[in-house]
Design goal:
The structure is a homotetramer.
Chain A lengths: L1 H28 L6 H7 L4 H7 L3 H25 L5 H18 L3 H7 L3 H5 L3 H27 L8 H24 L7 H16 L6
Helix pairs in contact in A: 1-2, 1-4, 2-3, 4-5, 4-8, 8-9, 9-10
Chain A binds a DNA duplex through α1 and α3.
DNA sequence: GATGAATGAGTGTTCATTCAT
DNA sequence: GATGAATGAACACTCATTCAT
């Protein structure tokens, strides 16, 4: 009988709607300043309804991270698995992937950074906690894998690939947050895409192993 | 009469003590999760006393930004004004300055990023707001100035210096926050200084204008 | 037409099913801690359905009291109306009745005691309120009647029979609740039936008029 | 310096004031229906203030139990330790003690019974939990000790003294609650003291070992 | 100036009740 | 009739801020 399935689908859709609303509000205000009521209003629901779909504010927030991390992994695994003629091309694909990730959820970072407070982790169900950890680990390994290819190929400097991961991720998220901050202060220059392009270009040039080296 | 001056000095010293305490707590817990009582305890004062020196939590926090921005400007202006034999040396001085800034207040960034919420700006006195804006603008101009020297000198690629500023600042703050996040998740690798060194090295290599170019 | 009657019977049966489920849950958790959803789950119905049969949680709860009070009255009226050879035998029948009442719904008491909050009475329909009052009065009169027989018969001390009623009822309900409490605290001794037997024995011996008196 | 001591005393007094207010409200409405705001209003304080003295609603409530249990133990230990010429006199002292306990806090029972919900125990600090358990155990042992004297003395029937404890306690608390219930229903007869006297008299007579036995 | 007890508005969460399907 | 998703009022608890001492 398709009825159950339809109900199931509608339930899932509602959950997604809430997540979309939550993403918007969390992105704008940050975790602490976002009230459940804000999210409810954004989703055109009442506060109580949110709790039919998510156990708590923390869990709702965490589930956004899951979504983003899944997206990130999908994108990175594309970059890894696709055959490229040159490392150069793979690098371009990586940059494209980072752009996509940015488009998908600019505030990944806010999300991820919020987790800093280990207190907020207390309320999270261990399963969710585990899932996030697993996904995050996989994402970092994926990135490291891409760099390892370049190192093995003598294309980029011989640095611990995890260091490169840290730098790329820091660069990426740092720029996003910095552009956000600038917006608030109404500074003129915020050309995120251009900044990204230049940043990645510099990063890639900086990693490149000189022929003479 | 020196009495007034002594009083003044003591008041200033007390204010500094509170700021030091506040910095420690804000750095550890972030703005929202820091209670005034936490700061009071750290400063070995009572909560009420904080309000003799700062109008509000927001203002206390903002004043930390002022301090950091002042520090940043001093450091950057050293880099600008000191005569160096080569741009290479100036670059090394800049990196050193960034290290110093990091030592001075790793969480500058948290601080600065917190300002995202434009609502929290409402409570800030316009003077303080102005001061921060002025200092921030000066800091960014200072950084841009340093890069301009390199551009004029044909040492680094011809990119809008403000873009380089955004990238350097994003890189810097992004790495700090990312390392903080990693700590929470107890991931093994967090060697902030090494990561910094590698990151700046890559950044500098990436900016460097090839002789052949 | 029997259709209406069948419908009527089915409706009544459904109502009874709900009450049975409700009794179980109320007994286990107490009034306030019982959620309508708990009862619905126990009855294998949806929450909304409960409201087709009962106007509110309070009314559902009250209707349980009605049922218990009816049961009590039936039992007590047996004890009154049955002819016994001696008061002694009637007394034994009373004790048996109390056992039966306990078996029927140990938590009568919880139920009855819950009514303490006069606020909760506000929501109850006056008819239900009246019915409970009438039934309770009848139950107390029935008990008093039994004692009056003993007094008239010179078998038990000459005390206002209502006082004896209060004592018996207090003794009965107090022991039930106390044993419940002990369970929670995992104290070893909870042998409710034995305690009951001993308690009633003492009560009867204590009421017994000495031959010499 | 006496200042600290005075502050300490005032703090203790305030705590007592809150407990008195809480006792009144809990007694009238029961645990669940009592809002912290009610207690605050009764104590002429704001809700927040209650939390300066008690960690939670549950802990405030539990601390009332502690107070009552302490009082009970003091009273019972008097009955045990005082030398009496006859068991008869000791019994009278026990009855007097029960009266005193009733005067001190009629709702002991409500308090104690509320603990039924093991869920509410979760929030209680283990220390408090322990304290209550210890005090309650001591109270029960004290009561049992008194009965043991009577048994050893051949004054009362040879029943497990703990059974007598259960019965006495059930009788006592049951009558109190029953009288409370009657009040709500505005039944005429509520002469608690008389009922108590009669109840204890019956209980004692019922326990008494016949000379002929 | 310094204190710290008191305040009370604000927020996450629960749950009796409703109502569109 | 039955459902169960949605509602929204209610309530425990927090914490920036104030003010009597």
């Amino acid at each position: 009988m398709g009825i159950k399935q339809r109900k199931q689908r509608e339930k899932e859709r509602r959950k997604q709607e809430i997540m979309v609303a939550a993403k918007r509000v969390f992105s704008k205000k940050g975790y602490d300043r976002t009230k459940m009521e804000d999210i409810a209003r954004e989703a055109e629901l009442s506060p109580g309804t949110l709790y039919l779909y998510f156990k708590s504010k923390g869990e709702l927030h965490a589930s956004l991270n899951v979504r983003v991390l899944q997206f990130i992994n999908i994108k990175l695994e594309h970059v890894i698995n696709e055959p490229f003629d040159s490392f150069e091309q793979r690098q371009q694909a990586l940059i494209k992937a980072m752009h996509d990730i940015y488009e998908f959820d600019a505030m990944v970072l806010n999300n991820v950074f919020h987790l800093q407070s280990s207190e907020s982790l207390k309320k999270m169900s261990p399963e969710l906690m585990d899932e996030i950890n697993t996904l995050a680990t996989r994402a970092l390994r994926n990135l490291a894998g891409i760099f390892q290819v370049g190192i093995d190929d003598n294309q980029i400097v011989d640095v611990h690939p995890m260091a490169l991961v840290d730098i790329l991720w820091g660069l990426f998220s740092g720029i996003v947050m910095w552009e956000e901050t600038k917006k608030t202060f109404k500074r003129k220059r915020y050309a995120l895409n251009e900044t990204f392009d230049t940043a990645f270009e510099i990063f890639i040039r900086g990693m490149r192993r000189d022929r003479s080296e």
